[in-house]
Structure formats: C-alpha cells, structure tokens
Amino acid sequence: MDLLETTSIYCPPYFGFILVFRIVQLSISHGVSVNTAYGFAYYSGILCHLGDLCNASKYAKFSLDIMQRMQARQKYCRVYSCLYSMTFLKTNHMHSCLDPVLKAHHEGLKAGDTAHATVCAVIYCSIAFRCEKKLASAKQVLTDLKREAKVYKQESVWGLAVPLEQAILNLMGHADKPNLLDGDAIPVENIDTFITNAKSKDAERILCVTYYYQMLVAYIFDDLELAIKMVEEYLGLENPFEGMVAGSEVIFLYGLTSLAQARKTNEVMWKNRGHDSMKKVQKLAKDSPSNYQHK
C-alpha cells in the first residue's frame, strides 16, 4: 500500500480519491497497516468536503488511533497534514489545532519527510493568521518557518504560504496598493504574473489560496469588483481546494461581497447570491459552531 499512498499524494485529486478508497478497501479486507492511517485520514477529508462532518470526525479519530496503535511515527506528519488541513479545522476549535500541527511539523523534520513538514508549517501559518492577536506575531512565525523551508529546499511547497505572507504585509500597511497582493512577498513582478505562472503549471492549490487572500484584502479595502472577480475565479476552478479553511471562508466572503454589491447596485442577482451564501454559512455555523457561529 506504500505505492498507493505515495501515488495518491502526487497524482491529480480525482485519481487520488480512487487510490485512497483502494487503501481503505484493502485495509478492511486484509487488515490494517501503517498506510491505513493515511487512507482513513484522507477519507475523512473527503467526507468533510461532502459536508458529512459527523463521520469525517469519526474517521479522523480512527485514523489517529490506528497511527498510535501501529506506532507509525513516520506517518505522523503526513496524517496530520491531511487531518488538520481539512477535518479538524472544521470540527475542532482553531486554537486547539495550533500545537498539534506545529508538533507534526517537527516530527516530520525528524523523520526526514521535509515536504509534509513544510505542508504542516503552511497550515500552522494559516491558523496562526486567524488566531494570533497581532499581525506582527503571525508575520514573525511565517518568516521563521519560511527560512526553514528554504534550508530544506521546499520553496515549491512553501509557495502555498506566499499569498498569505503578502496579505499580512498589506494588512500591516506595507504595500503601495493595499487592495492588491503586490509587494515584497510575491516572487515575481506582480500578482497577475504570479497567477499566470500558477495557471501554466496547473498549480490549482496555489491558485486557490491566491484567489482567497486577494479576495480578502480586496474586500477589506473596499474593492468589491476585484473581490467578486476573485471569488468567481475560485469557483471556476475544476477542483477548488477547500483546505486550510479557504473554501469555507470563500463562501462567507462571497456572501459579504454580494450583499455589499447589492446595496451598491440594487440588483436582485447580487442579493440572491448573498442570501444563498449566507444559507451555506448558517450550515457551517451549525456543523462547526466554535469556528463559524460568530459569522
């Protein structure tokens, strides 16, 4: 099952699902192995994506139990990066996710799994951005982990955190145009080039987080048209990435931008879109009150 697990990580998402289902099937038919924990962790993420948070939480805990019983410490980082990018960010309070993700990051480095250790670092920064009291503190955490990613030559994985870093700089007032993700963190001349490069590489996860953070700063700095454009770009992706709470918050921001646009233009279309989004947010608040009820 090692081959199934490794292939599921690096293949397109639609094919990864099939491989993970095969891991689960083999585990049920022939007994568990060290790969079973990852299979059920991924499966819980699929259930989370489908809105079945109850069973997603159940299988996530089952995955952790298998990992501990099998003493599969080499899978620690891989399993946690899966669980804490999706399921636990919806079923658990975000603050409670910080320490386990950071621990998984360190365990991954010890095991030599630098790629997934960096994924955990990206997840940690994403959570810290929402939980830290000061942006400067979140920025310092991000800077330290970015330096570490460079040491382990994981710049490509760290690319998922680049839009977040620039968003923090914008919110701290370190950007000429605060509504645009243009600045020191973007490794190319501007955000449009960054997006074009990601499209040329079919890097949908980077596109997802880029669209999300561009939408966030555009909304905060009252550029509604750009915010709506980013939402529509996100929703137009073939396999929009919902990890690191991006998918849930896109729904929330789409509702806010649509309602703001409705007030501005008096068009019924925007009002309907806003109300549709808010209905989805209400479901999120019901399923995960600790993280979404306040919205």
What are the key terms here?
295 residues, mainly alpha, 75% helix
Description of the structure:
With 295 residues, the chain is mostly helical. It has a domain at 181-295. 75% of the residues lie in helices and 0% in strands. The chain has 17 helices and no strands. It has helices spanning 2-10, 13-30, 36-49, 53-69, 76-83, 87-91, 94-111, 114-131, 135-151, 155-158, 162-171, 191-200, 204-220, 224-235, 246-265, 268-287, 289-292. Helix 13 (204-220) packs across helix 15 (246-265). The termini are far apart. The model has no long low-confidence stretch (mean pLDDT 88).
Name the poorly predicted regions: none
Which secondary-structure class do the elements indicate? Answer: mainly alpha
Tell me the quaternary state. Answer: single chain
- Based on CA atoms alone, the radius of gyration comes out at 19 Å
Secondary-structure topology with pairs:
Elements: H1 2-10, H2 13-30, H3 36-49, H4 53-69, H5 76-83, H6 87-91, H7 94-111, H8 114-131, H9 135-151, H10 155-158, H11 162-171, H12 191-200, H13 204-220, H14 224-235, H15 246-265, H16 268-287, H17 289-292
InterPro entries: Hybrid_Histidine_Kinase
Keywords: Coiled coil
Coiled coil: 128-155
